[in-house]
Amino acid sequence: MSGVLFSFEGIDGAGKTTQVALLSQALEERGHRVVCLREPGGTPLGEKIRGLLLDRTEDPPSPVAELLLFAAARAQIVATRIRPELEAGSVVILDRFTDATFAYQGYGRGLPLDQILSLEGIASGIEPRRTWYLDLDSEESNRRRTLRGEAPDRLESEGDTFRDRVRAGYLERARSRPARFHVVDASQSVASIATRILQEALSLL
Ligand code: T5A
Questions:
Q1: Which of 12, 23, 25 to mutate to test the pocket of ligand 1 (most atoms within 8 A of CB)?
Q2: Domains of the chain, CATH where assigned
Q3: What is the spatial distance between Cα 175 and Cα 67, in angstroms, rounded to a whole number?
Q4: pTM for this prediction
Q5: What is the pLDDT of residues 55-77, one digit of tens each?
Q6: Where are any strands of DSSP class E within the chain?
Q7: Atom of ligand 1 nearest to the CA of 188
Q8: 141 CA → ligand 1 middle, Å
Q9: Which residue puts its alpha carbon closest to atom 40 of ligand 1?
């Protein structure tokens, strides 16, 4: 595949969506064809699954059902959007990808990591060239999301202890995959984070 896959990860409110938009714009200005996609979502089926996963409901999915729904959305976006775009030579920027499943369903929910790994082989089988993990503590995550004034979705309602486990999971994955993961201090200004990420992205294209 001639394209390049980048992903952004972090706990809720870390600034991923902000940085995806800035990187995309900067790369397009330099002549690259860029496609931004979010997970869960990014396809008509995936967006329906997103609703099932994030809407607050009296009948929430069990942890295993949740894992399988994320995997189903991923299988769809990989097959119908990500692989075709990479084959066409695009730069694909993902707002969350497989690492989110390890962090949230593995470290957050406590599901076995080896089972998640097997499922990832079925649903995805591809790895980003670079993953920027925007590292933020729960307190600042809460502050930013409160400022935004939106009602928390089902996963955002899990609370600080859950988010702390997710953060620890991301940091563990970053430590064990230093060539792919770059940890970014997400408490810095939007502009300084964007500058560093753009420099790294350009060096990889
Ligand atoms: N999930 C997902 C799983 O459990 N398993 C999986 O496998 C996958 C794929 C998805 C949820 O699903 C879970 C994780 C999530 O809980 P989502 O809406 O896609 O939900 O993800 P969120 O992280 O909840 O998205 P957010 O929009 O809340 O967070 P972002 O994108 O990280 O943050 P962003 O850019 O929207 O910024 C948040 C606010 O902070 C400000 C922004 O202006 C905005 O108001 N901000 C900053 N403020 C100060 N300094 C900075 N550097 C800032 N950067 C942004």
A1: 12
A2: 4-204 (3.40.50.300)
A3: 24
A4: 0.97
A5: 998 899 999 999 999 999 999 99
A6: 4-9, 34-38, 91-95, 130-135, 181-185
A7: 52
A8: 9
A9: 144
